[in-house]
Amino acid sequence: MGKWNPSTGLDVSMPLNLIRLLALAPAGGAVWLGIIRKLSWPFIGFLAMLSMIPSQEVTVLSSGRTLVWALGVGVIGVWSLQTLTKGKVVRIAGRPLVLIVSWICWCAISIFWARDEAAALSGLLALGQLLAFFVLIQVLVATDDALRNAVAVYFWASVFVAALTIAVSLSLGLRRAFLVDQQNPNALARALGVGLLMTPLMLRGVSRSRLRLSVVGGAAATAVAILLTGSRGSWVGLVASIATVWLLVRSGLMRFRTAILLGIALLFGLVALYSSGIVGDYTIRRIITLPSIEATSGWSGRTRIWSVGWEMVKHQPFAGVGLGNFPMRFDEYIEPAGQVGAVDTSRDPHNTFLSVQAETGIVGSVLFLLSWIAIFFRLVKVRGDPRGVLGLLLLVFILATGMSGTIIYMKSYWLSIGLAATIPEVIRRDAA
After folding, report:
1. Mean pLDDT score of the chain, rounded to an integer?
2. How far is residue 172's CA from residue 39's CA, in Å, rounded to a whole number?
3. What pTM did the predictor assign?
């Protein structure tokens, strides 16, 4: 039997073995695609790794690691061996990588003043592994074919996981959709959101009406799954990314009239989903109360957490409290923030930028933001290309979702900025 979930009162782990088996299906599809297209084995392993990111919590091993991590280690090992033995030239987007590495180095230095050195070291090791994933994206997704293969695999994996999420949610009557009780619905929504934003590039890659219809149907299923997660941060992130990129690109993304029609279609779709019972009262209430951050928060109220975090920032503005030490130092600033009895203890910052500022100070924040700015301006230069549009969508989406969650340790975050950083390089090589 599985674990009892206090938020739903349901034994959500009951079908766990079946869910785990089904969650591996996209990886099998990625390997099959790689074989029939005669791709290199490191890249086939990379595609399989990408396919498991939306459902990585389902693949947790007895050691606590995931299959995504294990496969990533293998892919990096094989790629490194091939690079050394064959003398391959490695091409990486230089400036963003230099800034990201500089930020991680500063994070490493922060261990010296971190009160909990073990937490800081654990965070540093996690960032080091994710940096390797970022580099892997740069070196393996170096051509247009590689980019389109990676996008196709992740898109269809997201569609598959979305369909599985909808089935599990409806069969168990969950208020917020997820696959297993170890999975945070917000993290699932972000991972699926990355796949959903790949829809425009997927549509440009197919000409047959049946294939285009299947892409649209898959995108619709993914959107429904994101809706069922109840992740308001991801909802806002999707709207913000589409609106921002529309302002930057205009005719390259959609016309204003098309946007209005899309909005009307979404409204009618929501009504249909509610009438059919797929979307419940809880989700509708989260939509209606979307302008109010505190409406459904209770003890985890983000504004209360942020006010405590702001006191932490004011006390340690330059160097911060050390990587990974926000929860450990949180209780010290509850009283100065006037939140005694109004907020729980040892809270996560629930905001990526607050987390970076509080833990690594002004120096860390500047380096972190500069890496984003470097990627953004490279993408703006190629915004007339559909691939550049994808990069902007991913970058703005992950930026917006970072406002309501701490996402720097999530693979969906590093996948987004990794693709956003490599897309301008792919376009430049195509033009050469």
Report:
1. 87
2. 40
3. 0.90
